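Here is one chain, start to finish.
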Amino acid sequence: MKRRSFLIGATALGLAGLPRGARAANPVRIGALYPLSGQVAKSGEDTLNGIRLAVEIINGTPADIDLPLAKTEGLPGLGGAKIEIVAADHQGSPEIGAAEAQRLIEQQKVAALIGAFHSSVAATSSQVSERLGIPYISGESEATSLTERGFKYFFRTTPNSDTQTLDFFTFLKQIREKTNAKIERIAVVHENTLWGESFRDAVKKFIGQFPEFTIVTDITYQQGTADVTSEVQRLIAARPDVVMHASYDAEAILFARTYKQYGFKPQGIMAIGAAFGSNAFRSALGPDADYVLVRDHWSADLAATKPVIGVVSKLYRERYGKDLDGTPARAFTAMMTLADAINRAGSTEPEKLRTALVQTNLGEADTIMPWEGIRFDSKGQNVLTRGIFIQTQGGAPKTVWPLDLAPAKLVWPRPR
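Its structure:
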């Protein structure tokens, strides 16, 4: 099995050391599980960079950032201890993810895990952490079932597939009412791992609450496929008004190119998750990325009402040479949340850290997200999230929903 591990901490980031004669507290090691090779490696690296930036800020990067732990060096509750990230490449494989989780816990002695982008990998790796009694926080793995297993040590800051799917239908209902658009026929396209199937199940679960809509086709495809011609031909035959997607980077790009090749032009293409709104998607498709809608969690243009978003976005661009987007922003938030809990616990002892996570109560001003804050229910799910829809316009993501709050105007239907 191929292994890639990366140590990220005060020394690796070139941060200022302690005054001469002072003794540093033991570093707090956190294991980060992400796809750093394979088809979603670019998004995996971007997401890990969100965590790297959070660690840099916590460890003492001088910047005027109005967030918890941003104005101190290290973790005050642990005598100024710095955080070190030990990153592992799970390659998009649930089996490798589980093995790497065990290695990080037993050999690298990490205090907690963070990850894992893929819901299928989060499922297996968190089983390992649960068995070994180590806290695990996820900022971007969305399958609803992850917080339905009765686990004590698993926490998720991002909303689940059920919550996001309700936003899809609420959005479409509002568009019908405000524009008189004839939107009735829905197609669902999803990859065949836990995340895609969870989204499909949620669509079927909630569509009964919206009788104005009908599912005309449900298309499952193999993650990693190199050809979606037959899937697109089935879509053309079904004549949907809207396509709802759950796809990772490579297949999102492939579908978009095949849609163009066959002239498939529904009123709207809507996506859950990162791919259709990622830097990788926009870079690969150029102008053809425009007007796709992504049910997202964060957008840089929200800085007009929440200035800390602009500050963190600027730092991310300076460090990594690209714009921050929704998934790295969520990973950044999960890392800041975990650090807040470690600091309040004053310990890396697993039970004390788990108790601190249970007691988390961050407000709207404490994160870069457009959420009410972060507070976990008895299942470990954050209950204070809010959703937005972004639409790429002129090569840049723009927030277009909620309609009464969005800084940009929605373009509907997607121009032909």
